Structures are given as structure tokens and as C-alpha cells.
Amino acid sequence: MATAALLITDPATGPLRSVRDIVPADLWDKQVGLLQRDYPYDSVMAARVLGQGYAYLLTAMAHRGEQLGLAPSTLVDIGVHTIILDTVAYAELCEKHNEGHFLHHVPKVEFKNDGSVMKTAHLIAGDGWEVDLPLWADAAECGPCHPGNDSH
Predict the structure, then answer these.
(1) Which of 41, 75, 97, 103 has CB atoms 3.0–4.6 Å from 46's, for a disulfide?
(2) Count of beta carbons in the 10 Å neighbourhood of residue 33
């Protein structure tokens, strides 16, 4: 099954970065297993959600202090929480990729149609990570083409 991806077209940026190059294989397998345990995901879906969670967190770390108002989609947030709740591994990630500063994630209380989720997806792509667009789609579904959509 192919997934849509937001791709970098500027050849100066080089190839897409992979979170699998950052996350040790045993940690990856453990966290994919946690997602499969806690959600109705097969290993493919769990890996997609986890990968986007890491891409989000690594991008947020790279832009720490810039006040960009980054926000994950509903599905990506599941991956983010899986990573954060593995506290020892998350602390190591922050140590290595966030200059030792613990990156705090403050989830939105409610979904806001303010464009922040898709803006975040574009920033992640701009930083060289592959963006799995279907996992960010809940933000796009609330756009102007769905007036009156108050399901979020």
C-alpha cells in the first residue's frame, strides 16, 4: 500500500531523512509493539504513526524557542505520546537532539482549525523528513471545503 508523502523537491536539500537512522532498532520495535498493544494497529500502521511522531518531535527540537505554534495531527499525537511515555528513551532523545533540554509537549485541549497542523507538516518536510500525509489528514478535513464541520 503506497502512502502519499510530502516530498522535498529542492535537490540542494538532499535525500529524505529517516527516523529509523535516529531510533535504535530495539527501541523502535518496542514502541511499535506498544502501539499495537494499545491501539488497533497492525505493525505497518504502528510504524507509520511512530515515524511521524518522531519526525514531529525532532522537528520541534530543531526549532526550539522559535515560537512556531507547532501541532501534530490527532494520529501523529498518538505516536508522540507513545514516545514521550517511554520516559528513559525520551530523556535520551532530548539529551542527544535537544541540547539536553527536555521538550515539553502540551497537547491541544481541542482541535482548532487554525492551520497549525498542516503548517507543522510542511515544516517537517522542509527539515527533510518524509511526511505521511494521510496521517496528517484530519487537519485538512476541517478546512473551508467542509463548512459547518463541528465534529472536532
Answers:
(1) 41
(2) 12
